[in-house]
Amino acid sequence: MRLYDKLENLNQYQRWVLVICCTLPAMGASYIALQHAGDVLVGLFLFYVPVTLSVVLLGIVETIILTVIVVLTAIVNLLVVGEPPWVLGVFLAGLLFNFYFWRSWINHTELSEFQFQKTYEELELNMTDSGLAHEKIKLSYEANQIKIQRYTALNELARSLAMTFKTQDVVVLLIETISKTFMVPGGVYTLLLFDSSVGKELHAVRYSVDTDMEVRLNRERLHVEDPFNAWVIAQKKPLVINDAANDFRFQDIPEESKIESLVASPLMGGHELLGMIRMESSVANAFRQEDARLLSNFCDLGTVALEHVALYHQTIELATTDGLTGLYVQKYYKDRLRDEIFRALEHKLPLTVLMIDVDHFKSYNDRYGHLVGDKVLKLVAQVLRESVRTVDLVSRYGGEEFSVLLLKTPGDGALNVAERIRQKVEEQEVVASGQKTHVTVSIGVAELTPALRDAEAFIDHADQALYQAKSSGRNKVCLAKTEKVS
Question: For 58-198, where are the alpha helices, taking DSSP H only?
Answer without folding.
Answer: 60-81, 85-162, 167-182
